[in-house]
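Lab notebook, bench 4. Still working through the backlog of constructs that have no structural model yet. Next entry is a single chain of 354 residues. Request: give me the structure tokens for it.
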Amino acid sequence: MKIDRIHFYVEDARASQDWFINCMGFQAHASGASYHTQTRVVKSGSVYIVLSSPLTAASPVAQFLRRYPPGVADVAFLVADLDSVLKKAITKGAKVLQPVEQRQFADGSMKWVKIAAWGSLTHTLVERCGVAPLLPDINLAPEDNAEIADTYNGIDHVVLNVAAGDLERALSWYEGTLGFERQQSFAIETEQSGLRSQVLVHPRSGMQFPINEPTSINSQIQEFLDFNHGPGIQHIALQTPQIVQAIARLRQGGLCFLPIPQTYYTQLQDRHRGLCLSPEELEAIAIQEILVDWQEDASDSLLLQIFTQPIFEQPTFFFELIERRAQAQGFGEGNFRALFEAIEREQHKRGSLK
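Model written out:
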């Protein structure tokens, strides 16, 4: 099981497509419409983002947006055997929202089903044989951008936020229903907020799916839950080759990132004198305000990460861009305090810290 696509429900799919292309470095891939919903697809490497907006009040997107702000409505998983995965999910109590559908194409076939997940989130389970499109009933965009280099080459992880006290139940649901397994866990606290996080990993694909719950009313997780009107996908980490150059381009395109004080980079050198970065690389990283983490037993295994500002009007969903060097593991645990303090500064600006 691995991520097939991420489906956002938005106010204007065309405007969102333009934003993903101009600010995030994606490419147009496909488009289509029914009588009530328009859909656009953008891609970069193996990352596919689906953007849907309502054309009439009858659209499921319109119904969603009446209750929730724009954001991730569905995370689709590609599976090898849909029937067996669905049978296990139903046995564990999964609710089927849309029954199994199947479509034949010239060179292959596609079978899919949608199940309810946590809160308003859904999961579409997809099985493809041979050559089948990402979505039926949408048209591929002209290949006029085929020579543009991909900004991203995959999804590193997807993060779900749940309400305080719901973490254990959410973990059990994903373990029993979709076969995830628990990996590392974190409990993070600052002077003003905190959270508890458990990483789930799918044993076959290695796909990582952390789940967070707040441990204080000031927590960034609680702020997300308040503005999102419930649990949901907080952020998606995109694998970014040559992250320093990529961030420089994205900043020029107008993408806004979480600011990091320059004192972080002075402290970084003090924390690890043998950091496997040249002075020139460290300066470039500092200019782009990228966070750096490493493994104590393998200093060349560097994790470079940066976080965008929330991409919608409300402080809900954001992207993380991440580069792993020498097969670096983890999620930047050494950066958690710096990251939380940076988020808290933004919360102060919004007046969200109580």
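Notes after review: The CA atoms of residues 62 and 281 lie 47 Å apart. The chain has a mean pLDDT of 88. Flag for follow-up if needed.
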